[in-house]
Design goal:
- By secondary structure, the chain is mostly helical.
- The protein has one domain.
- The protein is built from 5 helices and no strands.
- Helix 1 runs antiparallel to helix 4 and helix 1 runs parallel beside helix 5.
- The longest helix is centred in the first third of the chain and has 57 residues.
- The radius of gyration is 27 Å and the shape is rod-shaped.
Length: 209
């Protein structure tokens, strides 16, 4: 009785798995595109800020921080504006902790959707494998139910079942590649914040604050 129910589910479940994979593919693609344009803009601004910080350190002119742009629409600009205000009001006391807290508040926005992409990348192949197993079960059950069915019928059913495995890999591979790429971008942005923090601390110490 239980076996019959399992085979009854397999008759339609393999198609359901394919639709699930298609839905995951569409959702993942939307998230990948959103993250790509969002992080690329932030990363470009962060690269510019790191270049300015590097130039100030190499020239031993930490005072150059005063002339750096404090654009409130960029992560580095907001951090720099907040740091300069903090230095004027409280000096270097608590500045490092304030930077760390700021980075923690910005990190969730930077890593948005990344956990979903990681989940899809690690689990989509298994979902596809489930669809393949169900499809193979369906193919052999059809062969057992129809004595007239030949080898070609079984092979056709198995080939269709393998589509689920291919679909799972098709969904997983872009998700994994995008996740790793976006993680590197997030690390680069946070490293940019660290460089701004170190420059602000150097500036505050040089000013004797």
């Amino acid at each position: 009785m239980l076996t019959e129910r399992i085979f009854a589910v397999a008759q339609i479940a393999d198609q359901i798995v394919l639709w699930i994979l298609i839905a995951l593919s569409v959702v993942s693609l939307g998230m990948i595109l959103e993250r790509f344009f969002y992080l690329r803009k932030i990363s470009t601004n962060s690269d510019e800020a790191r270049a300015r910080v590097r130039a100030a350190i190499q020239s031993h002119s930490v005072e150059d921080i005063e002339s750096m742009p404090k654009n409130p629409e960029t992560i580095d600009g907001r951090a720099l504006a907040y740091a300069m205000k903090h230095i004027k009001e409280s000096g270097s006391k608590g500045l490092e902790e304030a930077f760390n807290s700021y980075a923690l508040t910005e990190r969730p926005d930077l890593e948005r959707f990344l956990s979903f992409l990681a989940t899809v990348g690690s689990n989509a192949p298994y979902i596809g494998l489930l669809g393949t197993v169900l499809g193979i079960m369906k193919a052999f059950n059809d062969l057992a139910s129809s004595p007239d069915a030949g080898q070609q019928t079984v092979m056709a059913g198995i080939s269709l079942a393998l589509v689920a495995t291919a679909s799972g890999l098709f969904v997983a591979i872009p998700a994994v590649i995008s996740y790793n790429y976006f993680q590197r971008q997030v690390r680069g942005i946070l490293q940019g914040l660290d460089s701004v923090k170190e420059l602000c601390l150097s500036y505050a110490k040089k000013k004797g604050l």
